[in-house]
Design brief:
Layout: H1 2-9, H2 16-23, H3 27-39, E1 43-46, E2 52-55, H4 57-61, H5 64-72, H6 94-109, H7 114-118, H8 123-135
Antiparallel strand pairs: 1-2
Length: 136
């Protein structure tokens, strides 16, 4: 999403291929991520000649905390009740501490949007240099 936002800010066409090259990820992996972001209304994908990817208004405005929760799920930091449940689960204090830490993490992410991060003057230059190096 950061690559989409900075590409749009520079009025560059952003494609799955350019995101893949800049992120050092396979096109297949990026296509799956784009598909998921499209499903939840954060990215608009246009196919064909002149096509590309762009953030929707929602994609620019959503909090990073909401995005991480939506993509990763809002689950416990440690799965104490997993396949082999922890024998200390009933009296565990660590579980509550980890839950509080997770909420603090999300609360901090909730303070920012993709647009907030793109406003950084150095970020587009870093992404541009990274993209040029990987594509070149």
């Amino acid at each position: 999403m950061m690559l989409l936002a900075t590409g749009q800010a520079r009025e560059q066409r952003v494609t799955t291929r350019t995101v893949s090259a800049a992120a050092g990820a396979s096109e297949n992996h990026v296509a799956k991520a784009v598909s998921r972001l499209t499903e939840i209304g954060l990215v608009h994908a246009r196919r064909g000649r002149g096509g590309g990817l762009e953030l929707t208004d929602a994609g620019r405005a959503v909090s990073l905390g909401w995005l991480v929760r939506k993509l990763e799920g809002d689950r416990e930091v440690v799965d104490c009740a997993g396949q082999t449940p922890c024998p200390l689960i009933a009296a565990c204090r660590l579980r509550r501490v980890l839950a509080d830490a997770k909420e603090a993490f999300y609360a901090e992410l909730d303070r920012y949007t993709i647009t907030d991060l793109v406003r950084s003057k150095s970020l587009p230059v870093v992404l541009q240099l990274t993209t040029e190096r990987k594509l070149g």
